[in-house]
TrEMBL record:
Residues 12-467 form the Aldehyde dehydrogenase domain. It holds the Pfam family Aldedh. This is Succinate-semialdehyde dehydrogenase. It comes from Rugosimonospora africana. The keyword Cell cycle does not apply. Keywords: Oxidoreductase. The gene is gabD. InterPro entries: Ald_DH/histidinol_DH, Ald_DH_C, Ald_DH_N, Aldehyde_DH_dom. One of its GO terms (molecular function) is oxidoreductase activity, acting on the aldehyde or oxo group of donors, NAD or NADP as acceptor.
Length: 478
């Protein structure tokens, strides 16, 4: 087997460890490589070193910190093909999409390198003789725990914002994309002073041990279950917590839109990255007046998608990350069909190797089905026909999650009503993946807490100190 370290760099030296992560390609089960798991002593030492390095990094000028992040962006851009190839081989994403994800990470690093030196406090209106201000300071040591489904783009956002605001970072990428995470961490870490940045490799045990350490802030993008465990650990240690967790994002299709166009939007939202996106469309509410035409068009869209290995340039939809996830997705589909949902296409496990799952359209779904209540994270589009826009809003607001929602409507009044009433962090009108750069949403309910993007992310990695500086009274001299 070719070790992952040989893919990354001939100079990489395997760590001293008794445990390794072995990765296989989810498209065909072929070996990708292996990477060493950070032992407990390594986790503890990384946090200790980060605490030692944090004061010096905090005193480094914002412009110098920004320059280091710009250097990291250039290094990642130079390795875009390596990072994309590793992503494709480790989690199955079509290579062109994987390259776009790495490019998005580069752009995000550059964004925070530019914003970091502009991050500012406030002066306050106090007495004439005094100076009053609110000054921001880095929190100290940030634990950054990131997912496998878009491993470079998500990591770069959190790491970039943490570094430019003066925090030392201990980075734990997902064990499902360990090689991608290791290479990304190596490219960033070698450009920073010792201790300022460390990468930990491993699964839940490594992540849990990290969250038990004396961190000042923990940023996590991933499952709701893991987010809850992190919040509990932080309640003990006192770390601030930034979470973007699971979603069950609805798509509402109003009666006045073209059903063919709406089906294109739904297919994009439900099947991109094989449905393995936090903001994927996971449930669809369509007005009964156009439901038949919409379902016909969506089914046709799904049937035309070319499924294949991510490294095949003709593939439009790759495999799921592994068969464990595929089993969970298929269990939801089987349960829905047993309860009365009608599969319009897909819904069957394919023969052959790998973790492939076909684009699946389910009609006649109800709120009692897990496919409408629980996060699916696969290429499944469950559809519910509703009698009114108000009924669609009511059902879309059902459940534990509150990440994002999309509304397709030609009515300005309905658009206004939707963004006002839906209890989610992001509402997109007539564009399932649209939005200007810099949007900083706050997830609701079980989907998380805190700003995950935009300039406001810098606030999450800083803390504010109020300063009142008054003159001493004149001393009396004999």
């Amino acid at each position: 087997m070719r070790d992952i370290e040989r893919v990354l760099t001939a100079e990489w030296t395997a760590a001293q460890t008794e445990e390794w992560i072995t990765k296989t390609d989810p498209a065909d089960g072929s070996p990708v490589g292996r990477i060493p798991v950070t032992p407990p002593a390594g986790v503890i030492e990384a946090v200790r070193a980060a605490h030692d390095a944090a004061p010096g990094w905090a005193r480094t000028s914002p412009s110098a910190r920004a320059a280091a992040v710009q250097d990291a962006a250039r290094a990642i851009e130079e390795h875009i093909e390596d990072l994309a190839w590793l992503t494709t081989r480790e989690m199955g994403r079509p290579v062109a999409e994987a390259q776009a994800g790495v490019a998005a990470g580069v752009a995000t690093l550059r964004q925070y390198a530019e914003l970091g030196p502009l991050h500012r406090g406030h002066s306050l209106a106090g007495d004439w003789e005094a100076t009053d201000l609110m000054a921001y300071e880095p929190r100290g040591v940030a634990g950054v725990i990131t997912p496998w489904n878009d491993p470079v783009a998500v990591s770069c956002g959190l790491i970039g914002a943490a570094l430019v605001t003066g925090n030392a970072v201990v980075y734990k990428p997902s064990e499902r994309t360990p090689g991608t995470g290791w290479l990304l961490g190596r490219l960033i870490g070698e450009l920073l002073p010792p201790g300022v940045f460390a990468t930990l490799c491993g699964g839940p045990a490594v992540g849990a041990l990290l969250t038990e350490q004396p961190l000042d802030v923990i940023a996590h993008v991933g499952s709701t279950a893991t987010g809850r465990r992190i919040a509990l650990a932080a309640a003990v240690t006192g770390a601030a917590v930034l979470l973007e967790n699971g979603g069950k994002d609805p798509l509402i299709v109003d009666a006045d839109v073209d059903p063919g166009w709406a089906a294109e939007q739904a297919a994009t939202g439900a099947f991109a990255n094989a449905g393995q996106l936090c903001t994927a469309v996971e449930r669809i509410y369509v007005h009964e007046r156009i439901a038949g035409d919409f379902l016909d068009a969506l089914t046709k869209q799904a049937e035309q998608i070319r499924v294949g290995p991510g490294w095949d340039p003709d593939s439009q939809l790759g495999p799921l990350v592994d068969r464990q996830l595929r089993d969970l997705v298929h269990a939801q589909v089987r349960e829905a069909v047993a309860a009365g949902a009608q599969p319009r296409c897909g819904g069957e496990l394919p023969d052959g190797p790998g973790a492939f799952y076909p684009p699946t359209v389910l009609a006649g779904c109800t709120e009692q089905m897990a496919v409408l209540r629980e996060e699916t994270f696969g290429p499944v589009a469950p559809v519910v026909a509703v009698g009114s826009f108000e009924e669609a809003l009511r059902q879309a607001d059902f459940g534990d999650y509150g990440l994002a929602a999309t509304v397709l409507t030609g009515s300005v009044a309905h658009a206004q009503q939707a963004w006002r009433e839906l209890a989610v962090g992001t509402v997109k009108i007539n564009d399932v993946f649209g939005g200007a750069p810099g949007g900083a949403a706050q997830p609701r309910r079980a989907s998380g807490a805190g700003f995950g993007y935009g300039p406001e992310l810098l606030d999450e990695f800083t803390t504010v100190k109020v300063v009142h500086l008054a003159p001493a009274p004149h001393s009396h001299r004999a």
